[in-house]
């Protein structure tokens, strides 16, 4: 009769007269209740799996395979290989084996044996890949996504186990190799082009693995694969997957110092990100803001406050007013965060822009003094190294005149200042027209 029950909510009838029972009898009834609840839950999940498989409902099947969902994992863990195979005996043999191993993985996760759970999950990939390859329809695309996501989450959980509980492992690297097999199966799909649409999701999951392991050189292979003519056009994939892809490719461009590409890719990700996905937008802006700064675009304080990018508020303020002291303090304060996100070197380069802004203000003050006659016969286009040194001393930046000359020469070479340096007179001679070009114009040639 258990197979006809809908779930454990019918079980309380066993305890309807529990007030008249002894404590020993109550304990026995509780044990029976727990046992029947476990059996009913197992049967309910296995029966639902069978129903979904017969209906070829890929989206629902992916939900039933979710090892990250605690309730689903608990339902799966209450199954066993034998009972599962019996319940699913009428479906595809490969999928029978897949679910038997998934149930076993869930049981091992419940027992906190993450090492063996990961190994069992890897074993489940083989029969699932065969089922995906042999089926002529594309209904297994969503379940393929779920299998890949399960693999990454279990590998991450396994590697996170502290030393002493079990041997330290590097399953994330192995997970990357296993995902590549799934990627190969998806792009080689011959029976149905729609099956190839499983590929971009797998690429995004591989990006997450490679960024976590700091093996960014492997990302280039993925980008080349996506750009290959045999790969489906990006427009054919769901927008959410395209946004994720552009986010990671944008980050990769930042690391490779391809800032123009990074700006375009991250702007696409931000513009098409779901309006309610505030956390995702914040992640995108963590890289887009410094890229924009380097290309001469200063974000508003309202934007930084809205997405809680507080590490950039003081940085942007110092960037606008040319305060090297505030810039250095902010960079030092959030150094670990910037290094972890991979934007520290980019922000270090922003120092030249801050120096440029500071020297521009010195030029404005100097020009005003010349016009007012305070500089005697001095020319507004000639700024002494001593004056630049005084501005740096005021900012508590210690530099001698030789270092300042070197800095000014670099600013001229990079295009931040139009002019030349007179070493003999220790003077910066700036152009009469547009001596400090707009940062956007500089960025077009140098970024």
Explain this structure:
The protein is mostly helical. The chain has helices at residues 23-55, 58-64, 70-77, 81-87, 93-110, 114-134, 141-159, 171-187, 199-213, 217-227, 239-255, 259-272, 278-294, 301-306, 310-321, 324-333, 335-341, 344-371, 385-394, 401-414, 439-446; strands at residues 382-384, 419-422, 427-430. The protein is built from 21 helices and 3 strands. The protein has a 3-stranded antiparallel β-sheet with strand order 1-3-2. Strand 2 and strand 3 (427-430) form a beta hairpin. The longest helix has 33 residues, at 23-55. The termini are far apart. The model is unreliable at 1-21 and 32-42 (pLDDT under 50).
Number of strands: 3
Measure the end-to-end span.
72 Å
Q: Which value, in Å, is the CA radius of gyration?
A: 31 Å
How big a fraction of the residues is strand? Answer: under 5%
- Order of neighbouring strands in the sheet with most strands: 1-3-2
Largest sheet: 3 strands, antiparallel
Kindly report the oligomeric state of this protein. single chain
Provide a quick synopsis of the model.
The chain is mostly helical and 447 residues long.
List the helices and strands and how they pair.
Layout: H1 23-55, H2 58-64, H3 70-77, H4 81-87, H5 93-110, H6 114-134, H7 141-159, H8 171-187, H9 199-213, H10 217-227, H11 239-255, H12 259-272, H13 278-294, H14 301-306, H15 310-321, H16 324-333, H17 335-341, H18 344-371, E1 382-384, H19 385-394, H20 401-414, E2 419-422, E3 427-430, H21 439-446
Antiparallel strand pairs: 1-3, 2-3
Helix pairs in contact: 1-2, 2-7, 3-5, 4-5, 5-6, 6-7, 6-8, 7-8, 7-9, 8-9, 9-10, 9-11, 11-12, 12-13, 13-18, 15-16, 15-18
């Amino acid at each position: 009769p258990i197979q006809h029950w809908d779930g454990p909510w019918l079980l309380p009838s066993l305890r309807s007269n529990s007030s008249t029972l002894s404590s020993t009898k109550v304990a026995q009834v509780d044990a029976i209740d727990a046992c029947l609840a476990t059996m009913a839950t197992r049967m309910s999940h296995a029966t639902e799996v069978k129903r979904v498989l017969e209906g070829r409902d890929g989206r629902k099947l992916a939900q039933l395979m979710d090892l990250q969902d605690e309730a689903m994992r608990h339902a799966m863990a209450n199954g066993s290989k034998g009972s599962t195979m019996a319940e699913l005996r009428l479906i595809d043999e490969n999928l029978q084996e897949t679910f038997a191993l998934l149930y076993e993985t869930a049981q091992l996760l419940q027992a906190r044996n993450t090492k063996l759970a990961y190994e069992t999950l890897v074993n489940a990939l083989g029969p699932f890949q065969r089922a995906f390859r042999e089926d002529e329809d594309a209904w297994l695309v969503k379940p393929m996504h779920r299998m890949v996501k399960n693999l990454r989450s279990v590998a991450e959980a396994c590697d996170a186990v502290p030393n002493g509980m079990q041997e330290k492992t590097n399953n994330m690297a192995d997970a990357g190799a296993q995902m590549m097999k799934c990627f190969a199966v998806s792009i080689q799909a011959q029976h149905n082009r729609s099956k190839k649409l499983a590929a971009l999701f797998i690429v995004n999951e591989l990006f997450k693995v490679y960024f976590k392991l700091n093996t960014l050189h492997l990302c280039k292979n993925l980008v080349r694969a996506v750009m290959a003519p045999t790969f489906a056009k990006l427009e054919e994939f769901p927008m959410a997957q395209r946004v994720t892809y552009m986010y990671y490719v944008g980050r990769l461009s930042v690391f490779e110092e391809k800032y123009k590409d990074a700006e375009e890719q991250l702007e696409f990700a931000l513009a098409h990100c779901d309006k309610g996905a505030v956390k995702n937008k914040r992640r995108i802006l963590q890289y887009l803001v410094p890229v924009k700064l380097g290309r001469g675009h200063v974000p508003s304080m309202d934007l930084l406050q809205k997405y809680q990018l507080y590490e950039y508020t003081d940085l942007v303020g110092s960037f606008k007013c040319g305060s090297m002291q505030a810039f250095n303090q902010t960079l030092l304060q959030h150094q670990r965060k910037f290094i972890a996100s991979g934007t520290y070197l980019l922000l270090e380069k922003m120092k030249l822009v801050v120096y440029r802004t500071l020297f521009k203000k010195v030029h404005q003050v100097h020009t005003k003094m010349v016009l007012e006659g305070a500089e005697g016969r001095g020319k507004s286009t000639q700024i002494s190294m001593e004056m630049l040194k005084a501005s740096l001393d005021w900012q508590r930046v210690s530099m001698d005149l030789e270092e300042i000359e070197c800095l000014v020469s670099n600013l001229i070479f990079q295009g931040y200042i139009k002019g030349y340096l007179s070493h003999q007179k220790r003077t910066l001679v700036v152009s009469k027209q547009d001596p400090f070009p707009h940062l956007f114009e500089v960025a077009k040639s140098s970024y």
